[in-house]
């Protein structure tokens, strides 16, 4: 413990700048397997038909743009394996299981926030 503190002090003494790199980002939560995939990184020119065509190679696509919904969870898994990190319309896309939306809290009235409008 004392040796680690001494090394840190020594490094600081001979460092050109006081820059300390930020800690690594926390790992993103992974959603449970489901038949709905979230697709990010899409080219703005990608159409619903183009997305369906690309993902239908891995199973029956029910609906979606930005989200691709398969008939089964197994087909969704194949869609991820087949399309995650692949090029679509010249852009690399990412496919992952969609996360369930959390229930949104009702909006608070303006007066409850501590700010009020006065004339």
Automatic annotation (TrEMBL):
<dbReference type="InterPro" id="IPR012677">
    <property type="entry name" value="Nucleotide-bd_a/b_plait_sf"/>
</dbReference>
<keyword id="KW-0694">RNA-binding</keyword>
<feature type="domain" description="RRM">
    <location>
        <begin position="35"/>
        <end position="100"/>
    </location>
</feature>
<dbReference type="Pfam" id="PF00076">
    <property type="entry name" value="RRM_1"/>
</dbReference>
<dbReference type="InterPro" id="IPR000504">
    <property type="entry name" value="RRM_dom"/>
</dbReference>
<dbReference type="InterPro" id="IPR035979">
    <property type="entry name" value="RBD_domain_sf"/>
</dbReference>
<dbReference type="GO" id="GO:0003723">
    <property type="term" value="F:RNA binding"/>
</dbReference>
<protein>
    <recommendedName>
        <fullName>RRM domain-containing protein</fullName>
    </recommendedName>
</protein>
């Amino acid at each position: 413990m004392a040796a680690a503190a001494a090394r840190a002090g020594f490094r600081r003494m001979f460092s050109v700048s006081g820059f300390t790199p930020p800690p690594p980002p926390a790992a993103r939560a992974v959603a449970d397997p489901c038949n709905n995939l979230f697709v990010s990184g899409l080219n703005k020119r990608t159409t619903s038909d183009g997305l369906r065509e690309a993902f239908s190679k891995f199973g029956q696509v029910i609906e979606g743009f930005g989200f691709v919904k398969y008939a089964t969870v197994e087909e969704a898994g194949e869609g991820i394996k087949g399309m995650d990190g692949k090029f679509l319309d010249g852009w690399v896309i990412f496919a992952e299981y969609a996360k369930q939306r959390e229930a949104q809290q009702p909006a608070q009235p303006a007066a409850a926030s501590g700010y009020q409008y006065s004339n």
